[in-house]
Design goal:
- The structure is a single chain.
- The chain is α+β, with helices and mostly antiparallel strands.
- The protein is built from 2 helices and 19 strands.
- It folds into 2 domains: 1-39; 47-252, Immunoglobulin-like (Sandwich), CATH 2.60.40.
- A 5-stranded mixed beta sheet has the order 7-13-12-9-10, with no helix packed on it.
- Strand 5 and strand 6 form a beta hairpin.
- It is globular, with a radius of gyration of 28 Å.
Length: 253
């Protein structure tokens, strides 16, 4: 009887130890799965979209910008309006970006280099630009007098700060996607710029030839949106395959 009791006690301890080891293994495996689900990943591909933005019809003629003497003295040429720049039918300063179709649950690394905007000859250069959330925008002053940088966002926190003279600059970030943020200068009322803020890197601004290119897209179906301050928005559906550059030309009229 005594031997039977000792044997039963040994069986009890062995079972208890075995059960504990099994529960520990399950807990570690579950923790590993949770960590995998929260890891930020970036879907990158070898496809993309490229094209040009054209204007059909006759655009309005550019008009002289009325500036004070300090500003005109800093310029080699007369300043003309920039709200609609059409060169042989090609539209400059159109902001083109992927507005739908990217996989959910992914994050994209913030560029370490700042996006740079200058105040030169009493104009913002460039007039239209894009950056990612959290990326630094550096606004420089190349004029020998004061400007003030005054973005007017609807979703982000705005600011209104001066750059007193040549060589001065300020650096800021925007943390919420927003297309577009209007930027003005309260010292020089004609100065105007626009910033598109996105949570991904798939955007571009058309150059003087109306051209743009967005690369690094994974294969998939996307919505592409084009924004222009005077001509408005257009959207188009595109299908991207790895290794292929899809034509996505856009026309305004």
């Amino acid at each position: 009887m005594r031997i039977s009791a000792i044997f039963a006690l040994l069986v009890f301890f062995i079972a208890a130890c075995g059960g504990g080891a099994s529960e520990t293994d399950v807990s570690q495996e579950s923790g590993s799965d949770d960590a995998t689900e929260t890891v930020a990943m970036t879907p990158m591909g070898s496809g993309g979209v490229s094209g040009s933005v054209m204007f059909t019809g006759t655009p309005a003629e550019r008009t002289p910008v009325r500036m004070n003497d300090d500003c005109t003295d800093e310029r080699d040429t007369e300043a003309l309006s920039e709200d609609l720049l059409v060169n042989d039918g090609a539209v400059q300063n159109v902001f083109v970006y992927v507005s739908a179709g990217l996989p959910d649950g992914y994050t994209y690394p913030t560029p370490s280099e700042p996006a740079v905007m200058d105040q030169e000859g009493c104009m913002y250069v460039p007039r239209v630009m894009g950056l990612q959330i959290g990326q630094t925008i550096r606004v420089e002053n190349s004029d020998p007098f004061q400007h003030n940088v005054h973005p007017v966002p609807e979703e982000n926190r705005g600011f209104n700060e001066s750059t007193p003279g040549i060589g001065d600059y300020l650096e800021k970030t925007f943390l919420v996607p927003e297309v577009m943020i209007s930027v003005k200068c309260d010292v020089h009322s004609w100065m105007q710029a626009y910033i598109g803020v996105l949570d991904h890197p798939y955007f571009a601004t058309t150059d003087a030839s109306g051209s743009f290119m967005i690369s690094g897209l994974p294969d998939g179906d996307y919505t592409l949106t084009a924004w222009h301050e005077q001509l408005g928005e257009q959207t188009m559906a595109v299908t991207v395959a790895d290794g292929a550059m899809v034509d996505a030309s856009i026309s305004y009229q």
